[in-house]
């Protein structure tokens, strides 16, 4: 069906006729404020609100409280520091990147920077003016946007920023004998084609003769566009070979290249890291006699936190010691600039792209057992009910008593300690788990959102091949470390607040009313109820999760509640953390791999008088929060897409195999499922269903056949056949076991 475009491309007025307004100079009510923010263009802060409603200094305190209340109850969502939005509406104009074409041949684009939730909106670009070249996949333009529906915009080019993408990452294929281009005259015959790894890019590229960098068939490459002199596929030149498609070790580099993740340190930063030396004990609290232990995954190489606990009265005194990264990474140094640019470490099955050079991340900043290391520490008293008091921060020198794994600790707790744990002081493990039980009681009392989402672990053999994709088991030892870290993070935020210093908070706003209403409708069809939006707490969502625990609905309900959440971010505004039910929360415990934690360390050192300062200011934290929120989401996208490519690679060898799956969601064009064996999202397209008239009911979330009794609904278990797996894009297509095999081309 041909898409009907609106007759005009004009943007709606910021405040349409009929929108209630407050009289000038008076504080608006909640509905008036919501209407203004919803209909205004871009992100709105207190300055724009004061200008719109004519507010003076006497109104600012009341306005600040109103914005805070509306953020806490989910009416507004944070949109960067001191900015708010009602919905994920795009501004009137912004930079977009062309990803492909629609069925009419018109370009489709998406925002280059997308800070909203879920998938980025689709922008349907108007054809270029007569005499101007058509927009090519990967090209970036400044476009004027007009909203034409939920998640859909119409775009008109205002200014072209690039004639083509700087780089295209994809799979190079030499021409086969059956390819129509193979019969072209020799002077026009290309060396092969390039299929982009970006699943949103619909168009292929062509690699002319002599521009293939001697790449063999099935090679993952990076190419740069070449000028185009006529019609046909856009030409490109291969500039780097990443490795053969069949080598699992090249998979992570696809995301690194596509998302522009920095992976080579500047020489000056490497030199500073190599020149680092051990800290001196002078002017530090000596903790070397305290049997602090690190507890990490078996494959971890950087150990940035250590824990200790001892009984005190009815409770415990706990110590959390964190690597003193701030001692080595000074503000505005080459190391600092490199760390801020990266924002965080990125973890793949075959490698880590670290935030800091290995001389620090795996060396002087890693709390290795038996070696003296500088640290920042916090001592806290934990009461029997989990209440935390007497938190005291300091700069110390420590010597880890043992490097433990989660599995070791869990086995010891279950009665099977190994020799390493047996060599620790008597009662240490009992004290750690005792303190954890107290902290867990406080967590249960305040009511937190504890999602149980299956994680998958990709295991590679010594040759880089995928050995297995297995579930990542969550143990009580994981929960122990998590609660200790949360307690330390809360203490860090409260310390800075108590000394009236700016803090870079880890914030998590409540779900928006629109998302909660959508969630409510879906849960209603499953017999599950939620309280009204204004009174909803994290504990209410967790109550729903407990209702379905250990049932067939558990996986689906966890996924639905996850999708309804706002993404957490960093901001100097104390919005609070909805999921943890905490008013003040910062990140302090992982400065080796998160720049936010390093900024918190610097502020704490000034707060406790161990550094002259100044501490990072509000404006600096605001700018940093926006930047590292973006790098964090980039890392999460890279890790997620890489796991999808690993899973698709593993499934390529299993095309035709029948597996168990469950339905995650339904649409008019197919059924989205999750394969139980790998946790992989896969599509069962409408064309793969039995021939019938199918009706998709959004309200009841069902897909029903007209002539039979067949019905599909979320959470339903299915037996499916792997029909196609595309490793380069990480996509998997399914069929029903009884359907005849498809004749789709499976080379990719």
TrEMBL record:
<keyword id="KW-0540">Nuclease</keyword>
<dbReference type="InterPro" id="IPR050180">
    <property type="entry name" value="RNR_Ribonuclease"/>
</dbReference>
<feature type="domain" description="S1 motif">
    <location>
        <begin position="656"/>
        <end position="737"/>
    </location>
</feature>
<dbReference type="InterPro" id="IPR004476">
    <property type="entry name" value="RNase_II/RNase_R"/>
</dbReference>
<dbReference type="GO" id="GO:0005829">
    <property type="term" value="C:cytosol"/>
</dbReference>
<dbReference type="InterPro" id="IPR001900">
    <property type="entry name" value="RNase_II/R"/>
</dbReference>
<keyword id="KW-0963">Cytoplasm</keyword>
<comment type="similarity">
    <text>Belongs to the RNR ribonuclease family. RNase R subfamily.</text>
</comment>
<feature type="region of interest" description="Disordered">
    <location>
        <begin position="1"/>
        <end position="29"/>
    </location>
</feature>
<dbReference type="GO" id="GO:0008859">
    <property type="term" value="F:exoribonuclease II activity"/>
</dbReference>
<dbReference type="GO" id="GO:0006402">
    <property type="term" value="P:mRNA catabolic process"/>
</dbReference>
<dbReference type="Pfam" id="PF00773">
    <property type="entry name" value="RNB"/>
</dbReference>
<dbReference type="InterPro" id="IPR011805">
    <property type="entry name" value="RNase_R"/>
</dbReference>
<dbReference type="InterPro" id="IPR012340">
    <property type="entry name" value="NA-bd_OB-fold"/>
</dbReference>
<dbReference type="InterPro" id="IPR003029">
    <property type="entry name" value="S1_domain"/>
</dbReference>
<keyword id="KW-0269">Exonuclease</keyword>
<protein>
    <recommendedName>
        <fullName>Ribonuclease R</fullName>
        <ecNumber>3.1.13.1</ecNumber>
    </recommendedName>
</protein>
<keyword id="KW-0694">RNA-binding</keyword>
<comment type="function">
    <text>3'-5' exoribonuclease that releases 5'-nucleoside monophosphates and is involved in maturation of structured RNAs.</text>
</comment>
<dbReference type="GO" id="GO:0003723">
    <property type="term" value="F:RNA binding"/>
</dbReference>
<keyword id="KW-0378">Hydrolase</keyword>
<dbReference type="InterPro" id="IPR022966">
    <property type="entry name" value="RNase_II/R_CS"/>
</dbReference>
